[in-house]
Design goal:
The protein is an alpha/beta fold and about 1000 residues long. Among the domains are: about 20-180, Toll/interleukin-1 receptor homology (TIR) domain (Rossmann fold), CATH 3.40.50.10140; about 190-355, Rossmann fold (3-Layer(aba) Sandwich); about 360-420; about 435-505, Orthogonal Bundle (Arc Repressor Mutant, subunit A). The protein contains 27 helices and 36 strands. The strands form 9 sheets. It has a 10-stranded parallel beta sheet. Strand 13 (about 525), helix 24 (about 530-540) and strand 14 form a beta-alpha-beta unit. Helix 16 (about 380-390) packs parallel to helix 18 (about 410-420). The longest helix is centred in the N-terminal third of the chain and has 19 residues, at about 170-190. Keywords: Leucine-rich repeat, NAD, Repeat. One of its GO terms (biological process) is defense response. One of its GO terms (molecular function) is ADP binding.
Amino acid sequence: MAAFPTNEGDSFSSSTQEWDYDVFLSFRGEDTRHGFTGHLYQALCDKGFKTFIDNEDLQRGEEISAELINAIKSSMISIIIFSQNYASSTWCLEELTEIIECKKNGQRVLPVFYKVDPSEVRRHKGSFGSALTTHEKKFENNREKVLRWRAALCEAGGLSGWHIEDGFPEYQFIQGIIREVSSTKLNRTKLYVAKYPVGVDSRAEVVENLLDIKSNDVRVVGIHGLGGIGKTTTAKAVYNRVADQFEGSSFLMNVRENSGTDCSIIKLQEQLLFEILGIKEVKLHNTSRGINVIKESLSSKKILLILDDVDKLGQVENFLGKCDWLANGSRVIITTRDRHVLTTLEIDHLIYKVVHLDRHEALQLFSKCAFKKDKPEADYLQLTNQFISYANGLPLALQIIGSDLHGRNIRQWESELEKYKSIPNKDIQKILKVSFEGLDKNEQDIFLDIACFFKGLSKNYVMDILAACNLYPDSGIPKLIDKCLIRVQFDMLLKDGVLDMHDLLQQMGREIVQQESNEPGKRTRLWRYDDALEVLTENTGSDEIRGIMLCSHKPTTVTLAAKAFKRMRNLKFLIVHNVHICNELKYLPNGLRFLDLPNYPFPLPSNFCPHKKLVTLNMPRSCIRLEKLFKQEFQFQNLKSINLSGCESITKLPNLCAPNLEKLDLSFCKNLVEFHESIGFLDNLQHLDLRFCEKFQNLPSHLTWTSLYDHDFSDCPSLEFFSSKDYYSWPLGEVTKINGLCAYRCKNVVDLEDIIDKLPPTEILYIYTGKSKIWYDSPYDQGSQAFLDLSNVQNLDLSNVGNLIELDFLMKSDYFPVLKHLFLNEINIIIIPESITKFTRLETLSITCCKYLREISRLPRSIESVLILNSHSLHPQSSNRLFSKFGESWQPRRNRFDIERYQVILLGSEIPKWFNHQSVGNYISFWIHPYPPKIFCCVVFKPESNEPSYIDLQVSVKLNGIQLCDSSPAGIECPME
């Protein structure tokens, strides 16, 4: 595995800077010590500010002492009181020079112009000009010193401060100074981030990049993620890094929790004004007034505002209104569990989703909590890994569990691990449950159904089922995604998005159901095998139950109560896996939406009429009698999917009366002979699987499958519609869109060229028909001039075409313009020609068991994945050229974090020498230049046994602790030599 190193410093957030003094006072003693400066010093001390003022008896010379320099450097704020004789003191000017130098390092400098005009200080006029002239004569041999004084006076004279003239009450100015010092101290005081802020700095750096502090625009940045993932922690770290670059800053914690009433909102508004302006006395009587006061008071200041844990747009508006008044350079950070809040603000490009801790970070955080060190003790390593897997990268869980296990012995650890699997930690659940409690009833039901039954299933598949339950998934599922309660991940095998959620969220959802009742029969959902079996064998079900999953880890035979489902009139989901029911059920609820009952050896109950609600019927390898279920008087309007694979009792598919059917799987129905003519009129049918239907002979004479996307007739030796006598009346003629046609080992297939000419526009073309010849020349039928439209073909499979020895015929300019995936397995080609580069959109190339292949000339720039296995004749130069040419296609994108990923799999036993970073094991780290280069990762592995096997290979790339990309696990065949 290749990865970028994480600097050890990334494991700890920036530490709080310790100041010896809040304020350093620089002044001319003879002018103001016993007047204004004395009063200011006393007021500061009375307010609790630690203030440095030099001793009146301090021995003075030409140079200020090291003690004074240290006092200046260790002060948060310096207040300079410019008075008539300030510049006449070289001591004061040396102090000033040191203060201006400290200003460059972030010290706050506040000037007070006491009865002198700021312009005299800045332009060296009046008493300041006279004093400097005197100093120039005195230090004519050290003019650089006087030049430094002049520069310091010029800079300090241009700073914003207070101008006190004769006749003005000095106490009012002192109050203003106190407020500014108070506000500055609040802004400069670092926030406590975390006891063990592992990985926080790397995440804060990403947010800081989004803030782009140097730009002068107004910017709102969102931090989004699951509860307990570290949103607030990241925001605190960002605050500590950048707050001192603003004129004022405020961090409002727990906005959601503290916005329940007008009074609580007003308190937050007052807190905001106090933290930025230092004004305690402001009393706001209503939220509307508060919004306007905030706007009027802060519109001229460059501010940093962090609103933590927001869950509604109105909570942002309570402080910022329309966000249209913020001064240039201001920044707002919003942390939320709900992405929709951020998208409503139209800041999609400025949202950071906090990522889970990777394995290394999780191990470090857990070890710090459980062992008070970076690594676990050797005896605890295996258990540590199990707890880390349970927490699944969630910092909250790692901290709580690790701290709870600290100081306990191995036996106690083992007991806790088993307990956590069945009884979740209440502190973790409390945090995670906040998002759930913010959902409406429909959304809660969707979440609980997914947590209990549908995690890992196709999103579209589940949405059809939930829609039939009147749960409105089109709006509900996007809301769950926005709130980080579920996610959709693309599954390469299903070629579809599947629903997923964090393991602890699933456990939280199931625990919510578990708490509904101590009696399983009175809960809404049953997924635990023991609970479901108890209800079904003891007949203790009730109307409360809406779903049952009876799934065993090992094959099990059970006897259920014959009328176990009689009381479950609201049952919507029945899922049975790896359980053989050995008695006939006498009743099933008619309201079932999802029936997953494989291997059921009996007919369905005669009184079972699910036609009004049923969406999915999964009964593979069962003894279903279709004519009993699909009666002519019933219309299955909601039925979308039927899986009857391996049902040997089916000889003819009857009229299904299911006009909205999309998927029909009849594979391995070895006694199936024909379809009812009505099947040809299923206009919404998209997927048809007839593999290994050995006796199947004919499709309906007329087809209107206008939605058909792919179908598979592999190993249907009796299928006659491909025979030459039926060729010119081929029933697929009215099919307008085919994603894929597979006719592997169909004995009655005519020459493939003729078949292709009959195809409608297609996206996937499978041409592996065994003995058939492959077409070489024009795709025109010379007799009818019918044209084969190849403009939409994205997937082309030429596997197993035994007489195919060259590919040039594919390379004509008008062939396959959008081809993405090319499969050339088990064919006799000798060379992959350079003309393959004409496929400018090709992403995947698979070449396996091509025993004569010797050369690969070039690959198109678009290529992303190449698989070459068991092609032993391939010249070594081609392998090396494959890597080097592969790299030429890489072009850096504008977004430096948008990583191109490529995959090449070759048969070999060593890493090529030109890989300049090599290691043994599953981890490698190395330093890189400021911008990510091309990265090739070569992994050499071999199976553990002499038998053919598969491995899952996944590559993760990190840069300074930031997860740049995580490849999907690749299942790789490990063939025998």
